[in-house]
Amino acid sequence: MTPGLTAVLCLGLSVGLRTQVQAGTLPKPTIWAEPGSVIPLGSPVTIWCQGTLGVREFRLDKKGSSPPWYRQPSLAPGNQGKFSIPHMTQDYAGRYHCSYLSPTGWSERSSPLELVVTGAHSKPTLSALLSPVVTSGGTVTLQCGSRQGLDGFILTKEGEPKSSWTLDAQRGPRGQTHALFLVGRVTPSHRWTFRCHGFYRDTPQVWSAPSDPLELLVPGVSGKPSLLTPQGPVVAYGQSLTLQCRSDVGYDRFALSQEWRQALPQRPARQPQAGLSQADFPLGPVTITHAGRYRCYGGHNLSSEWSAPSDPLDILVAGSFLDTPSLSVQPGPVVASGENVTLLCQSRSTNETFLLSKEGAAQPPLRLRSKYRGGHFQAEFSMSPVTSAHNGTYRCYSSLSSNPYLLSHASAPLKLAVSAADTIHPPQNKSDPTSASHPQDYTVENLIRMGMAGSVLLGLRILLFQAQHGHGGAQDAARS
């Protein structure tokens, strides 16, 4: 660039700046806050104001306060004004503007800065309607609510890109308020983690504490993990419960979802052995809130995409009702392999479903609709034919269709023993004529006995005949 052209550009810049100053249109300053404009209660914050060259003084104005709210000499050579707040309180929350004084006068005001304080009210709750598990490309409705009767709610999305939404509250019948935020399209390209705050209408820059974070889970197509529990699918009220999510894929973390509930706990993966990743989710002691259908997902730390869901695992909580059904067996608790066996579960209370559980079995219990017979609600669980695999201890439960995961108290245990067919009946005494196990032996013995009796009778008749004829011969000889 030639010196003449440089001089022309500098002259033009100087003339342009002089024209702005003469016209009273100095460039408006820039205002911002560090570390941000949303500050927790009691934390420090600094407001900065950036002007042009030759600034002598900065002025900070707060809406609702007598101007100027604060004045600060320029900090050469950066031409910046610095306004420090050592401890953020509700009094500092509000809308700010700044301006600067140049040799030709005051500039116009900056754009507004909304300085917000959080933690002034109790935190609201944040949940996803239906489920926080969302299919890729889908939408989800998030509900932010409070029992304090807040007038409005702000939903913020963490991470990049950051977003926020503000809605007026809807009031419930008992004074509680909430707002529904429709979020979409949800994709696995980045994490979808949200928090929400609440505020009152007369102090819109004074927010509540943030809600607990809610992360949406977007399932992918990678290998699904397995979900199991060492305690079995039926657990008693108050019992300790742990669910295990494991995979032969080297996942870094696992998430556990419960159908119709908002909790989506995550646990880092561990490697109990080579080629296996696993996470334990302790849930006990068990209450009725733990009853339901669970799935788990695997994920990597450097990716927001999760695996395909595991197969569902139903956790049934026993001891939720007062009635206790009874369990009986026909023809008896000791049967031969191949026989037909029926386990009968009965209750006098109105129950819609009966469940039969085998102790130590990983499979879910058998379910049957109840039938009303002879003053009882009952269900017949048929096992035909039985094998040695049916050996074990059984219990039955009852439940209502309104909540199939909540069960009654368990029946008394019933032990079923299945033996080989030739070991069920002990050998019979063949000499016992009452035995019905050997009809052929019984007939032979009778024939022998009848034959012997006939022989004896025949012998007696011969002897009698001989005696009679012998005595008659002697008399005839005497007469002669």
For the termini, the CA-CA separation is 191 Å
What does the largest sheet look like? 6 strands, mixed
Secondary structure class reads mainly beta
Task: Name the beta content range.
Answer: 35-45%
CATH level 3 topology of the largest domain? Immunoglobulin-like
Number of helices: 2
CATH level-four homologous superfamily name of the largest domain: Immunoglobulins
Mean pLDDT over the residues: 82
Backbone CA Rg: 45 Å
- The count of domains is 4
Q: Find the count of extended strands (DSSP E, 2+ residues).
A: 36
What would the principal axes of the Cα set say about the shape? elongated
CATH architecture of the largest domain: Sandwich
Helix fraction bin: 10-25%
Poorly predicted regions are 1-23, 424-448, 471-480
Question: What is the CATH class designation of the largest domain?
Answer: Mainly Beta
